[in-house]
Amino acid sequence: MKHLFRVLLLVIMIAVFPCLNVLAVGEGNINNGGGGLGAGNSSNKWTPGNEGVRITVVRVNDLAVVTEPIDLTNKKPVGLAHFGKVSKLQYKNGEVLTPSPSSYHYVNTGQTVPRIISSQSLGVANIEEIKRYFTDEQVLRGIAGVLGMDFDILINGDYKLLIEPVSYLTYEGVFFGMTATEAALYDEVTNGGLRSKLPTVGFQNLPLAMFLEISDLGYPAWDGPRSGIRSNQEIKSSLGLGIIQFKEREAESPEIISYDYEYRVNTEVISAVRVSGGQSDPDHPTRVKFYIGGRSYQVDNVYYPDGDSQIVWVKWTTPATEQNMTITVTVSGLGNATKGTIHAKIVDLGKNPPPNPVADDRNDSFSPASVPNRPVKTFASWSVWRPWWQEYWVWHDGDDDDGYWCDHGWWEFDLDSYQANLSSSMSIKCDSKNPTSSGRTMKSGYGINQTVTGSVSSNQSLAVTQPQNAVSYFPEFGYKTYWRLLERTGSGRFEFQKNNYSAYKNRTHFSPIWMPDGVYTVNTWLLDAWTPEGMLSANLTDSLTIRGDLWEDWHISPKKP
Fold this sequence. Notes:
- There is one protein chain.
- With 561 residues, this protein is mainly β.
- The chain is built from 8 helices and 30 strands.
- The strands form 7 sheets. Strands 1, 4, 5, 7, 8 and 9 form a 6-stranded antiparallel β-sheet that branches.
- A hairpin with a 7-residue loop joins strand 19 and strand 20.
- The relative contact order is 0.11.
- The model is unreliable at 1-33 and 35-39 (pLDDT under 50).
């Protein structure tokens, strides 16, 4: 179970045997005590475990009771006499103990209420289990639902929960349900009759099941004995209550983590932000809007659990010209809005092709360069939170056995994982118009052809793009200075653009005539395969061998007479 970290303090005093010291949540406001179980008969008895707990919401600033108290129990009491749903605080403020003519209303929750009243036969109530229960987020969400109170309002620091143990006991043959305060008041009505018949359960086990160590809600801390039968005045003033206090919760605005990008012109790209803050679910969804180049792109129904985040993205196509763009992102949810900014640089890789090679080119200072390392990323993974409703059915008892079930559930989240893989290859070969090439060997001055392939596989195909650009770099330029932007000639296939300096307008690149013999390696960067987690790319190479030069294929004969 996920425990509600916002609970600052649980002030529940559990009746246990003497000399047992335990630490509580928060400030350690907890003490304990206990005793045995007195004798009883069929007309006056209590069965250990026959109990419940009354919960009341109290407003902190004026100590007003703001909801009708509810009784949680694991039992299904039938034919129970009771005094209505009245809290200890209401009795203190003058409410008179009055038998109720209505059927007893109780709530059976989907999560078992821990035993609160200690006894000799069942032993000490487990304080740690009780703390876990009353500080569990889903339990508190269920309680808020039964009370008809918004959970976020309940825990915002303006309210506290007053908790009172309830005992289901038989007195003079009548089956009763009563809190410790009601037991003390009823004993006064019966002139001590209840105390005379059920002294231990009504005036020791029940009132000492919970008490305060720190004064709160106008009730003092209990520093008296931890066992033994207590007086009615002690019970009414100080015993039979616990308090859950929530620290003040500030409204959480959505938060944005944005990323800066470099894109190519005329390219389908993905821009993403990461959103967090509070919990976003179908009842309180988050919306993200991207403002790009005069257009808006909206992503609705962005969900994530409290304490986590969600990456949010849009696809769009970059403009045809180089420029710097500012993308504004707004996130709205939980009644708040946040703005973020993405900076995008749009570049054109097609503006720097190699110059026209000529027969008398020279480069006497040429020194081979190593193929550079370029950004490489062939795998990406991301995830999407998927909310689902956890049913939490609660039985509401009604008059004349006319009860009903009501779903007081909550949102749970599953995390769906996605990934993308880039596969790629590159191959160069001697140009088809090269008359003297042999396999993968050619003379300098002739051309080469190239084929690059790339594809992205993903289990969320709509969230990725296939590779859209490839750019080749050459050893004669030190793999910089000049480059060729390849043309996409098919799905996932790239080749040189048609060369204006080729007599046949072939898709070729001419090696310089001065290129020394040896390995001729072309480097191609395959890029612009976009995912929500950035760009996938590959740094590819392939090589041919140069032996000799183009001049060796020319023969000049004497002019015939």
